[in-house]
Amino acid sequence: MDENSPLFAIAMAADLAGMHPQTLRQYDRLGLVSPRRTAGHSRRYSMRDVAQLREIARLGAEGVSLEGIRRVLELENHVTELQDRVRELERALADELLNRPGRRVFAAGESGDVVSLRTGTRAQRNTQLVVWRPLDE
């Protein structure tokens, strides 16, 4: 089980978040927190969903509108996705560094992909970032 496992029925999730179940239904309709559904179409909330409901309550208490809250959550989710992608690229780069003999040269393209370059090859565009590590002697 992890934080994304659908565990809680709407009444329990509402209790954990300190909200009324009808508020959770409204947030689901608005797309702020969309829990998973069972085969019988009942809502099942995860710990991540409950944390997001608490964040919505906190932002609302600070005077942020529902549209503002939606945008904040959207941006937070995007940041999380980007952090995951960076970790993925760092692992790929580390694997490449460990498995390549000799000089190691890479370019990061505009879309964020990592491209290995042959020794003596230049990056194709001025917008690419080149990472170089000399041979350990």
TrEMBL record:
The keyword Phosphoprotein does not apply. The keyword Coiled coil applies. SMART domains: HTH_MERR. Residues 7-75 form the HTH merR-type domain. This is Helix-turn-helix transcriptional regulator. Keywords: Coiled coil, DNA-binding. SUPFAM superfamilies: Putative DNA-binding domain (SSF46955). Pfam families: MerR_1. It comes from Leifsonella bigeumensis. It comes from the Bacteria. Residues 72-99 form a coiled coil.
